Amino acid sequence: MGTETPITLADVQEVYGGPECDLWELVMGQQIHIGGLQSSMDLADKANIAPGTEGVDFCCCTGAGMRFLARFRNVARMTGVDATEKVIQTGRRRCEEEGVADRISFVVADVCESGLPDNSADFVWGEDAWCYVVDKPRMIAEAARLVRPGGTIAFTDWVEGETRLSPEEKERFLRFMKFPNIQTLEGYRTLLTDNGFEVLACEDTGRFAPHVDLYLGMIGMQFGYDALRIVGFDHTVLQFVGGEMQFMQGLAHQGKLVQGLFVACSPG
After folding, report:
1. Which residue range forms the structural domain that includes residue 86?
2. Residue 191: which CATH number?
3. What is the tens place of the pLDDT at every residue in 15-29?
4. 51 lies in a domain?
5. Which is nearest to 241 in space by CA: 168, 181, 175, 176?
6. Alpha carbon distance 205, 211 (integer Å)
7. Nearest partner of 140 among 190, 202, 83, 65, judged by Cα
């Protein structure tokens, strides 16, 4: 799927280097993905992430997914790849604070060209972040390059549901979220199979709509002051964000936006 908006990597870096990242963390926690710990557990179980394995987290942000894997799956080594220096600096500090820095490292790079060695990971991991990547075919090819024979690509992502977005809805949603494009369940399945992987799971988790309800409720009912502080007490900005999230909420309840879960295995 090609670029549908003029959003670039630099735009995404600006988002995650600024207050928007703090706003997402306010309502979603350090695990800035739908479902938090439950979603991570589900993905790790379905991907059979085993103790002692080595993985790479694409678009790792502050490394919350890697800290989860170190703590709950006892992985031997994780390498996080992200293009935004600010979140990586935060991630390194948090890994030190949680006592897992000896097993987690970060690389500042584009996930489409990570610079990591061929066949260097048992699995490539991602959680609700690949929607920010412009060239998704190139990213999947890069993940496939890194995975050892018999290894796994496991990720969740925001994708278009079976009920499709109208062109106007898609343009508005992508611009608000700073996504260059959005994939579908079948689109990701095709990218994985085109790279020689067997798709073991390709499904809608059913989490998207109820969690957007939760996030809006938290801002409206509890975190209004905190959200305003993050945006410099600019009521206009917060009203805009709230309005766009309500628009997204409507799309989710119509089945037009879902969280997809994917697990695919490389030939052994």
Report:
1. 9-162+181-208+257-265
2. 3.40.50.150
3. 666 788 888 999 999
4. yes
5. 176
6. 11
7. 190
Q: Which two tokens stand for residue 14?
A: 């600006």
Tell me if 230 is assigned to some domain.
no
Report the alpha-carbon distance of residue 184 to residue 20 in Å, rounded: 25
Q: Identity (one letter) of the amino acid at 62?
A: T
| Cβ–Cβ < 8 Å for 80, 57 | yes
Is the Cβ–Cβ distance between 123 and 217 less than 8 Å? Answer: no
Could you tell me if residue 14 is left (phi over 0), alpha (psi between -120 and 50 degrees) or otherwise beta? alpha
Copy the structure tokens of residue 144.
């496939």
Whether 215 is in a domain gets the answer no
The length of the chain is 268
In a domain, 63, yes or no: yes
Q: How many domains does the chain have?
A: 1
pTM recorded for the entire structure: 0.94
pLDDT tens digits for range 139-179: 999 999 999 999 999 999 999 999 999 999 999 999 999 99
Helix, strand, coil percentages (3-state) for the chain, rounded to 5, are: 50, 20, 30
Question: 1 pLDDT band (50/70/90 cuts)?
Answer: low
